[in-house]
Amino acid sequence: MSTTSSLTRVALVTGAGQGIGRGIALRLATDGFDVAVNDIARSADKAEAVRDEIRATGRRAIAVVADVSDTDEVAAMVATTVTELGRLDVAVANAGIAQAQLLLDTTVQEWDRMFAINVRGVFLTWQAAARQFIAQGRGGKLVAAGSNASHRAAGFLPAYSAAKFAVRGLTQAAAMQWAEHGITANSYAPGVVNTPLWAGDPEGFAREAAKIPLGRVQEPADVAALVSYFASPDSDYMTGQTVIMDGGLTYN
Ligand code: NAD
Fold first, then answer.
1. What is the mean pLDDT of residues 222-242?
2. Member of which family (predicted)?
3. In 10 A of CB 243, how many CB atoms?
4. Which of 25, 81, 111, 162 could form a disulfide with 36 if both were Cys (CB 3.0 to 4.6 A apart)?
């Protein structure tokens, strides 16, 4: 590891092969971070493409395959990041799934999968990152994907809304427990973002997009701008917040 590399701050972004995670990874690279780009094995080629985009800008980057719902894979993801890039400063638990469904039709398997990825995935990513931050002794920044549904449930997304409320609770508790280590925890709460997440529900996308007061759908770059702030020293006094940024759909 060179002296230069150990001075460059390192960010890990989960679910970064496409969509919001990709936007965050590219933005943090522009901000000067070296970046670990995570996705599941099925999307390894997408994570590698994002890695290559970042390397083309002159920053260091790796692609690291892991399922965020798996304890051992998440531990290995953080260990690989530190081995390859030298340190860890920011961990963005972005990976998530969504499913429009009726509560009466929702199976236990669907419910558990939603919580395994969208809630356990944040818990495991943050826990592994916090262990690394504490070992390094210089604090760190934890970030996760909430949603405007973390504040006001979307009726067509019941399990998703419950899971995103859980992310908001975890964000508050993590902020309280790890403040003494100089670790902050904040989550972004977007609205209707133009990503493949909506591929299975184009009618829902159009319906929800039509309600946005600012008159356009949200782009991954809009979300990445908020995460850039969470990752920067400018947000050092903010912790435990799940910040709504949805074009005016939701107010707290
Ligand atoms: P997306 O479906 O476009 O991308 C999600 C990525 O996560 C994919 O690359 C996928 O392969 C990866 N992923 C899925 N399961 C994983 C796992 N177990 N381990 C690792 N990676 C996994 O979704 P997106 O729209 O970019 O959403 C990103 C996050 O933002 C999600 O948590 C989502 O709930 C949240 N969000 C999205 C919107 C929106 O409108 N798109 C709104 C609010 C919140």
1. 98
2. Belongs to the short-chain dehydrogenases/reductases (SDR) family.
3. 18
4. 81
Burial (CB count <10 Å: 0-12, 13-18, 19+), residue 2 = exposed
Q: 5-60, pLDDT tens digit by residue?
A: 468 999 999 999 999 999 999 999 999 999 999 999 999 999 999 999 999 999 99
Given the residues 160, 211, 237, 251, select the one marked as catalytic: 160
Tokens matching residue 235: 């947000």
Rounded Cα–Cα distance for residues 54 and 61 (Å): 6
Please tell me the predicted confidence (pLDDT) of residue 129: 99
Residue 160 annotated in active site: yes
Domain 10-245 has CATH 3.40.50.720: yes
Domain boundaries, the chain: 10-245
Q: Is the pLDDT of residue 1 over 70?
A: no
Matching residue, tokens 């977007």: 190
